[in-house]
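User: I'm writing a tutorial on reading structure tokens. Could you give me a worked example: one chain, its sequence, then its tokens, then a sentence or two explaining what the tokens reveal?
Assistant: Sure. Here is the example chain.
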Amino acid sequence: MRIWRTFPHSGDDPLSEGGSLCAPRAYQGDGRHDNPDLYGVLYATQGPVAAVVEALAPFRGSGPLSPALLRRAGLPLALVGLELDDGAALVDLDDPAVLLREQLRPSAVATRRRAATQRQAEALFASHPEAVGLRWWSAHEASWIELSLFSERCSGLLREATVTELDPSHPVVAEAAAWLGL
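And here are its predicted structure tokens:
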């Protein structure tokens, strides 16, 4: 399955900091499914526009898109296409049967209360040792599918396919910026 993520890009080694497969736990803790004491999380999407929207959403309402919005900590943002093995197990929080089995309500999964979603992720990580991550819908557009991948469980199941540093003229950036009104 082809998935997408944006990340501050530095270097060619996908597993080192600044690489497409790196989930540095030192910078995690505030994200939807973060539990850095247990695992690192690679946040990805099933579409490239959704991945860029996730990166640019904090700037909604701040004015037009500028090149500075495509940098983090002095590094250029990149869009990476990744290949996740088709056999990789995901806990699908977009499936009503899974929500029922896990005793989760859609409103609890979609909440912006990070303490709640992090507790859910911790419980699902523990109860599904075969799962490499969680599949759920975007808070920005429900038809966009998001993935929270447990980085340590993805070893050998995730491969880098393409890396493109982003600039305002990139078609995916332009589409994401238009969607956000930047």
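What the tokens reveal: The chain has a mean pLDDT of 94. The chain has one domain: 2-180.
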